[in-house]
Amino acid sequence: MQNTAYGGWPNCIRLTNDTLELIVTTDVGPRIIRMGFAGKDNMFKEYKDMMGMTGGDEWRIYGGHRLWHSPEVRPRTYEPDNSPVKAVIDGSTLKVVQPTEKGTGIQKELEITLSAQGAKARILHRLRNNGPWPVELAAWCLSVMDAGGMAIVPHPVKATPDRLLPNWSLTLWPYTDMNDQRVSWGTRYIRLRQMPGTEPIKIGLSNNEGWGAYLNKGQMFVKKFSYIEGATYPDFGCSMEVYTNAEMLELETVGPLTTLEPGASVEHAEIWQLFDKVKVPASEADIERDIVPLVKQAG
Predict the structure, then answer these.
(1) Could you give the CA distance from residue 79 to residue 95 in angstroms, rounded to a whole number?
(2) Cα-Cα-Cα-Cα dihedral of 213, 253, 32, 55, to 10°?
(3) Which of 108, 115, 190 is nearest to 156 (CA)?
């Protein structure tokens, strides 16, 4: 780990093992603004007109990876993260802690651990209730991916007696068109492409397979998470959501809904792995042959 300037912010922290490079902002956040192979492109989207900005009461997307709390509602979800965060280094782990949100009483934390070698990292997300009353919420972890790629999300696999009962749920937002040509619904996988000049679309599902991927620039970003069977998830049961517009694509995981008592916290972990020289699949057979084996390699 080393202090570095990045994107106009003078006080960032760079984590690298000579294979993978992460850059974490401390002038705003908590936020991981860069994730990519050392010396190669950022897989995350950067909003150039917002880079280096601080302060103010307006929420800014900035880009990169952030932590929210679900369900989405204004103004609660859009509390600005424009102020400095506290950074603590503990061995190979960097912990960044946001001041308690004035409007919600919730405090956001990220614990980032880079593997000693290889393009792998563990991101632990934590929400703490520093307010005076219980709050129902879910940890919501959003990776804002750069334009031009394709997300892959597996259908859930659950056995039901005699196949008489439904085994998973799909959630659509009011602006989602099921005829949208960016989506391939598939037999086993949903593929969603990011394209310029397009309207927003969002889908969510009860992803008990515990992974999602984004392919771009000849590389593949995989995030894995734990799905808790029997838990209640927000947005009609979504543990994974994918949103895209004309500029970017968000690959999002969501934890179970929980009621946080004052002083209590909830955690949600993601395992990230980045793979190089991966072709965008043209079919589900390609996914099974080329993508799934790499996903299984991710921790």
Answers:
(1) 21
(2) 140
(3) 190
Token look-up 């991916």 returns: 145
Length, in residues, of the chain: 299
* Six-digit token string for 220: 């593949």
- Taking the chain (299 residues) in consecutive chunks of 10 residues, what is each chunk's mean pLDDT? 96 96 98 97 98 96 98 94 96 95 96 96 98 97 98 87 84 97 96 95 96 98 96 97 98 98 98 97 97 92
What pLDDT does 116 receive?
A: 93
Q: HSE-up of 255 (CA within 13 Å, CB side)?
A: 21
Contact 84, 27 (CB under 8 A): yes
For the chain, what are the domain ranges?
2-297
Q: What fold characterizes domain 2-297?
A: Beta-galactosidase; Chain A, domain 5 (2.70.98)
Q: Are 267 and 125 in contact (CB under 8 A)?
A: yes
181: left (phi over 0), alpha (psi -120 to 50) or beta: alpha
Residue type, 88: V
Cα separation values, 232 from 113, 128, 261, 283, 293, Å: 28, 19, 18, 33, 30
